[in-house]
Amino acid sequence: MKTVPYTEITNITEAVKVVVDYIFKGSNVRYNLAIQDNIRHVRVNIAQISRVIINILKNSVQSMSNGGKVTIEIKNTTVFDDKIVDYVSVLGKGNYMQISIVDDGIGISMGNLEKVFKPGFSTKQNSAGLGLAIAKSIIINHNGYIEIESEKGYGTSCHIYLPVSWKDAN
After folding, report:
1. Considering the domain 8-163 in this protein, what is its CATH number?
2. N or C end of the chain, less CB within 10 A?
3. To 5 degrees, how large is the angle CA 64–CA 68–CA 70?
4. What's the Cα-to-Cα distance from 70 to each of 29, 67, 78, 123, rounded to whole Å?
5. Domain boundaries, the chain
6. How far apart are CA 148 and CA 27, in angstroms?
């Protein structure tokens, strides 16, 4: 069942910067934060979206125990064709804010890639396997979409799409 979170219209770039600084502080993983000019506002629950970014970035850092690099890009994008996401949601034509997180970590095998959003699935010991399942639920509840692309040995890319709001934040 889809629940509707408390939301407000905001530009989430500052929240992403805070999360990035928190995750990479003291880490041997380098990062590049690329934010397009004039990022559109989105209607979100900023605490929930911050949780999504934290979960994804933690996975990236953990996949690079010997160091590496993560690129976080925030940009405006337009979807021209309906994109069937899964049985729960459809990302329709329109304008979106896209957050992409790309790492050069160990990657995810094809067999595991199909399971990453399933509750309880984890390849890590002492993990409940809920981080990405919760992330997907949050994004769907914001009428957005999240996808992960990866190949074992070649890193992982995560893309989040959130519909833009045509109203400005107060």
Report:
1. 3.30.565.10
2. N
3. 95
4. 7, 10, 24, 20
5. 8-163
6. 23
Write out the H or E segment, with its range, that includes residue 31: strand 29-35
**Structure tokens, 46:** 């900023």
Q: Dump pLDDT digits (tens) for 61-81.
A: 988 988 999 999 999 998 876
Burial letters for 133-153: b for 16+ Cβ neighbours within 10 Å, e otherwise? bbbbbbbbbbbbbbbbebeee
Q: Which residue has the tokens 């994804």?
A: 56
Distance CA 83, CA 15 (A): 28
pTM score above 0.90: no
Q: For the segment 137-169, what is each residue's pLDDT rounded down to a tens digit?
A: 999 899 898 999 998 889 999 999 999 987 655
Distances (CA, A) of 101 to 10, 140, 160, 167: 20, 18, 9, 26
Phi, psi of 149 (to 5 degrees): -120, 135
Residues 10 and 42: beta-carbon distance below 8 Å:
yes
Which residues, at least 6 apart from 52, have a Cβ–Cβ distance to it below 8 Å?
134, 135, 138, 139, 146, 160
Which amino acid does the sequence have at 8?
Answer: E
Of 79, 91, 84, give the one whose Cα is nearest residue 143.
91
